Amino acid sequence: MNAKIIDGKGFAATVRDRVAKTVERLKADAGITPGLAVVLVGEDPASEVYVRSKGKATLEAGMNSWEHKLDADTSEQDLLALIERLNNDPAVHGILVQLPLPDHLDPDVVINAIDPAKDVDGFHISNVGLLGTGQKSMVPCTPLGCLLMLREHHGSLSGLNAVIVGRSNIVGKPMAQLLLNDSCTVTIAHSRTRDLAEVCRNADILVAAVGRPRMIPGDWVKPGATVIDVGINRIESEGKTRLVGDVDFASASAVAGAITPVPGGVGPMTIACLLANTVTACSRAHGLAEPDGLTS
Ligand SMILES: NC(=O)C1=CN([C@@H]2O[C@H](COP(=O)(O)OP(=O)(O)OC[C@H]3O[C@@H](n4cnc5c(N)ncnc54)[C@H](OP(=O)(O)O)[C@@H]3O)[C@@H](O)[C@H]2O)C=CC1
Ligand SMILES: Nc1nc(=O)c2c([nH]1)NC[C@@H]1CN(c3ccc(C(=O)N[C@@H](CCC(=O)O)C(=O)O)cc3)C=[N+]21
């Protein structure tokens, strides 16, 4: 193995520490405690795990945390009523509605009901538009975490060829916007892309956000490239479930210059950035200076 392993877990601990220090300052100087409300509809086991770890991380950073667990058959009206209540609650600075939602709920309607200033996921159309035009917004946590790791590793990203595999609204598209804002030359690939292997081989920065276990092998990776593996896939191996990414780590790490592992890469950074966004939202709500190094 030649690649440097980008330690997302370690970097996330640093970000969380910075968040905790900012929270302490907000409490001491302004008497404000940032607060995050997470809404979970239904009983998806993976979502329950994420929601629990988000709640734990929020409390550890010294912030207030609220979990709203609703039945799988909750009506749109009831969910929108809860969001309205959280929008109007001054103690709540961030609202996250865990995705995916049950099929009878339209995620666009639900997300766009969140006050954009409290939309710590950065999924509201206002935030998407602000990011797309290079204005101050709330930035989606997973792409923000990837960007912070890339900047930490490379310094400037200007002029680098970035290829993102995946065009979802929550990962691929905002990742492309952020890398474009940092002056990368950006290609977004997806399931209809022709000769994906060749497209990937052109990447100085390769971001995989597909949801297919170990889909990207080492011979798609340009020697020395930086590989960011967003994929979180649960697979059965030797009678146990384990997590693997969208990149075949064994072969890719022999070629890449640097690579994020799964677990311990992008996932922990996502949670750290959620905390960072909550503190940013709180600071903006009170007209206070924003914490340094925690936004795009
Ligand atoms: N670490 C973290 O914090 C997070 C991890 N994830 C993980 O990241 C992965 C992606 O998530 P998400 O963006 O929500 O997924 P989506 O399913 O919404 O999007 C997947 C994308 O991959 C593309 N794709 C599918 N198959 C292929 C293929 N064979 N070749 C090329 N492209 C393909 C799809 O193309 P098309 O549009 O053409 O269908 C689509 O654009 C998942 O494993 C998810 O669990 C997600 C969020 C946070
Ligand atoms: N509104 C919304 N916002 C999200 O940000 C959101 C969402 N919905 N739905 C689901 C995805 C997925 N996601 C992850 C967060 C942390 C880890 C994480 O911490 N992973 C650990 C491993 C955790 C484990 O062992 O299961 C790691 O990669 O090391 C993974 C995935 C956020 N998402």
Entry summary:
With 296 residues, the chain is α/β, with parallel strands linked by helices. Helix content is 40%, strand content 17%.
Give an overview in words.
Residues 140-284 form the Tetrahydrofolate dehydrogenase/cyclohydrolase NAD(P)-binding domain. Keywords: Amino-acid biosynthesis, Histidine biosynthesis, Hydrolase, Methionine biosynthesis, Multifunctional enzyme, NADP, One-carbon metabolism, Oxidoreductase, Purine biosynthesis. One of its GO terms (cellular component) is cytosol. The structure is a single chain. By secondary structure, the chain is an alpha/beta fold. It has two domains: 30-129 and 269-285, Leucine Dehydrogenase, chain A, domain 1 (Rossmann fold, 3-Layer(aba) Sandwich); 141-267, Rossmann fold, CATH 3.40.50.720. It has helices at residues 8-30, 45-60, 76-87, 107-111, 125-132, 141-154, 172-181, 196-201, 249-252, 266-285, and strands at 4-5, 35-41, 64-70, 94-97, 161-165, 185-189, 205-208, 226-229, 233-237, 240-244, 258-259. The strands form three sheets. The protein has a six-stranded parallel β-sheet with strand order 1-11-8-7-5-6. It has a three-stranded parallel β-sheet with strand order 3-2-4, with helices on both faces. It has a two-stranded antiparallel sheet with strand order 9-10. Helix 7 links the parallel strand 5 and strand 6 (185-189). Helix 6 runs parallel beside helix 7 (172-181). The longest helix is centred in the N-terminal third of the chain and has 23 residues, at 8-30. It is globular and about 50 Å long. The structure holds NADPH dihydro-nicotinamide-adenine-dinucleotide phosphate (NDP) and 5,10-Methenyltetrahydrofolate. 5,10-Methenyltetrahydrofolate is lined by residues 49-50, 96-99, 121, 141-142, 232, 243, 262-264, 267-268, 270-271.
